Amino acid sequence: MSTFKLVVVSAGLSKPSSTRLLADRLADATVRRLGGAAEVTVIELRDLATDIAHNFVTGFPGAALRGAVEAVTHADGVIAVTPIFTASYSGLFKSFFDVIDHDALAGKPVLIAATGGTPRHSLALEHAVRPLFAYLRSVVVPTAVYAATDDFGATGDRHTGGLAGRIDRAAEELAALLAGRGPAAAEQPETVVPFAEQLAALRV
């Protein structure tokens, strides 16, 4: 059975973090819908904050940041979760995706989610986070998941379906996109022909 590479980007700043909690629940739900055929890599942006700042100054990523960027670039799908500050994504979240090449996420399935202290910030997913990934030409799943503090442990109502219902719906949409595309084929190592052999071929 082929295995999907699923990368989870969490921009939570505290530890423990409600942002990371939401990210883990989304990843678990997606893996279940893929029948367990997924390899999950979690990127905690709080651990990369210094590397991200240095990259903007020097233009060169450190080893940890380079590994995170490569993981996102080669992922089959991405779950991106940010806390909402001042009605938008966090600066750390935006800075990380600024580091990644603009073509790296083109056509890649992405599930977006966010956390905040109040339900009033839920529309930030639609007016800030979704346009960011639309600019990067990602395929964003229809259901964006927002979790306010009161959502954790709540059952919801007939209009919202509760946080668990939103997580399940978004995970199902992401899994369907991944299953439709199939896992990316492993990259083949580049064949390097020694310069002497190239010269010999020209002389023939």
From TrEMBL:
NADPH-dependent FMN reductase-like domain ranges (all copies): 5-148
Coiled coil region boundaries: none
Keywords attached to this entry: Flavoprotein, FMN, Oxidoreductase
GO molecular function terms listed in the Swiss-Prot or TrEMBL record: oxidoreductase activity
A Pfam family: FMN_red
Root EC class: oxidoreductase
SUPFAM superfamilies per the UniProt record, alphabetical: Flavoproteins
Entry protein name: FMN reductase
Source organism of the structure: Kitasatospora aburaviensis
Taxonomic placement: Bacteria, Bacillati, Actinomycetota, Actinomycetes, Kitasatosporales
